[in-house]
Amino acid sequence: MKVLRRSCREGAEDAQGLTVVIDVFRAFTCAPLFFHFGAKRVILEADPEKAGYLKRGNPDWALVGEVNEVPLKEADLGNSPAGILHKGAAFFNGKTVVHRTTAGVTGVAAASKAADEVILGSFVMVGAISRYILERDPDVVTLLAMGDRGERPASEDEACADYLEHLLTGRDYDPVETLRKVLFQETAQKFMRGEKAYLPPEDPLICLQRDLFDFALGVRQNGAFFETGKIFQC
Predict the structure, then answer these.
(1) How far apart are CA 5 and CA 118, in angstroms?
(2) In the chain, which residues have pLDDT < 50?
(3) Maximum CA pair distance of the chain?
(4) Which of 23, 65, 29 is nearest to 207 (CA)?
(5) Count of domains in the chain?
(6) pTM for this structure?
């Protein structure tokens, strides 16, 4: 198994083989929460206008999304794990969710053009992801860390890629040093300052938990839509 490391939108264009699109803060921490709370379908829509159109045409669907972290006008909530936890199963059970994010979801759309298979990556699913990949044993795995708004590397996404590479290959990994690198960077600190309601300080606490879920999420194209769903369970 050859493991490639790529970053941001530019890296998505060079995705090869089985590709893990990593977005720790916050898209792919949110995605498994939808299923945990009983969502029946999750559509990944990169275009914010199309996401809004889907919500207007289907008012009983849930729209969760943002543009550069600011919640979409028509969204039921922004891209916040804490917000999803607060709403819980009472809101999500049985619903179709449209999920739009600046980095992770757009990365899925880009990577899907070249990759053989795309799965979602975050710390909360990392054990199940690694087990799925090891069982599949593909020739090439691309760990695509989407970074801050898909424009520049982010320490939390690179750290998740480091840990996945450790689980897949045995490469050295220092969890304490990882926390040091992640917690004191702006991508985490902007939440902890509590200056913006749509960046709650609880979000990094959730996003940095390992293995909250025992399943991995894959991506498939269904007509005009990219959808995500469970492909493996420990």
Answers:
(1) 15
(2) none
(3) 49
(4) 29
(5) 1
(6) 0.97
Give the pLDDT score at 166: 98
Q: Is residue 230 part of a domain?
A: no
Rounded CA-CA distance 169/1 in Å is 9
Q: Coil, strand, or helix at residue 233? A: strand
Residue the block writes with tokens 């999420």: 217
Q: How many CB atoms lie within 10 A of CB 19?
A: 30
Give the residue among 159, 210, 161 at the shortest CA–CA distance from 184. 159
The amino acid occupying position 123 is F
HSE of 167, CA atoms in CB hemisphere, 13 A: 23
How deeply is 59 buried, as exposed, middle or buried, from its count of CB atoms within 10 A (0-12, 13-18, 19+)?
A: exposed
DSSP string, 17-58: SEEEEE-TTTHHHHHHHHHHTT-SEEEE---HHHHHHHHHH-
The parent domain of residue 205 ranges over 2-223
Alpha helices in the chain (DSSP H): 8-12, 27-36, 48-57, 81-92, 104-111, 126-136, 155-169, 175-183, 186-192, 202-207
Q: What CATH number does the domain containing 167 carry?
A: 3.90.1560.10
Tokens representing 211? Answer: 């293995």
**Among candidates 103, 122, 107, 98, which has minimal Cα distance to 44?**
98
Collapsing DSSP to helix, strand or coil, 2 comes out as strand
pLDDT value for 129:
98
